[in-house]
Amino acid sequence: MKVQGTKLGLSCPVGQIATTENGKVVCVDYATTAKNLLGATCSIDSDCKFTWMTCQGSKCVVKSTRRQGDKGDTCTGNSVDDAANTSKTCNSGLQCTPKDATSSVCYEIKFNNENEACNTKDDTNLIINACKPGFVCLSNVCKPITIVKQGLSCVDFPQTQKLCDTNLICRKASATASGNTCEKYADWDQYCDSDTTCLMGGMHYGSLTTCAMNVCKRKYEKKDGETCEKNIECYSGYCTVVSASCNSGNACPTYDGNFGCACGGSITTTGSNGTCVASCQGFATDLQACLWNNYYNDMSTVVPSLSTLGYSQIIDTSASAFSKCKEEYAHLYTCLKNNLSAAGIKNHGTLDTTIVDLATSTTPTPKYTRPIQRSSSVSVVASMMLIIVAIVLIMF
């Protein structure tokens, strides 16, 4: 079934996708479009449109596991080999490195002792030299590191040979502290001065953590009426400028992209009046936190894009992500369906059965789920290994 759709951003209701025909935007069934694209001819991944599809052998197929190469194998980093449906990356302990002007191969990373070479490579034996844990590379030579205990003054690694002890980072311990000392990561609701100083900081939680008003919080966590400085603090996705508090009001700010502006049923011409679509960021973050807590690191193909929806909707209920976080998916799709409907973008015809099953409850319930610290903690050894590999990547 085709119905006249909308023009910008959140352009069609849940379960449908926008496409342009004869100068107008129409909404078509999601499931029908997906089934028609599977097996269709393609040249590149984007021809397959859906985030969970890839172009393999000139056909659109569901993404599969990527191959990893051994020492000496040719590689192309994360780029995809269409014929084999693989990305030519390297196995653990190896690094895809240019060998000459035309090719890259998997090099072994060799970790050396004090006064041995580092940040250099041997093209004959396919070796990249780095330092063992406990050493830092200074002027291409490995030098021992001084471990600094909790509460003592510190300077950032690797500019000098100092490094904070296990599970400590260099940060301000409080708002009144005169300088940085080696401290534990700030826990939930403790003082912080940046996202990365929070417990297992933002990058470790898949960008789910934020330093809000110098306190560690989950992104999109604060309830209506709580004091805020930025949209990202509020479950509603909206921090009012006037009262500096979280608000579920259907305002249409031009920053952060948390509210969509859609033009229900408009012809695709400029100058059309739009309508605001309220945010579902809080429910989306509940889902992301649930996925993280179930050990999903890459959520890009299992969480719908709130700004465009369309081809990012997921209908594969056989995936383990659904069995682990079905309630969170239901709440998110229900929020999207309700907010689009409230903005005048109502569902037309029959939605795909899978998505209808997910969007069942009339009023979804916020869960405010926080990401947990996983059992494997950050250690000096792990931190140093990451830093060393990062330096090697920058050099080569």
Give structural notes.
The protein is of the alpha+beta class and 396 residues long. The protein contains five helices and 23 strands. The strands form ten sheets. It has a four-stranded mixed β-sheet, with helices on one face. A hairpin with a 2-residue loop joins strand 20 and strand 21. The model is unreliable at 3-9, 202-206, 254-259, 264-272, 348-353 and 376-395 (pLDDT under 50).
Attribute tags:
three-stranded antiparallel β-sheet; flat; disordered C terminus; alpha+beta; four-stranded mixed β-sheet; 396 residues
> SSE string, helix = H, strand = E?
EEEHEEEEEEEEEEEEEEEEEEEEHHHH
N-to-C span: 53 Å
Spatially, the strands of the biggest sheet line up as 10-11-13-12
* Radius of gyration, whole Å: 25 Å
Please, what is the average pLDDT?
Answer: 75
Low-confidence stretches: 3-9, 202-206, 254-259, 264-272, 348-353, 376-395
Summarize the structure.
The chain is an alpha+beta fold and 396 residues long. It has helices at 30-37, 281-293, 320-342, 353-358, 380-395, and strands at 3-4, 16-21, 24-29, 53-56, 59-62, 68-69, 80-81, 86-87, 89-90, 94-98, 104-112, 120-122, 127-131, 135-138, 141-144, 146-148, 162-164, 168-171, 181-184, 209-212, 215-218, 260-262, 275-277. A 4-stranded mixed sheet has the order 10-11-13-12, covered by helices on one side. A 3-stranded antiparallel sheet has the order 1-3-2. The chain has a two-stranded antiparallel ribbon with strand order 4-5.
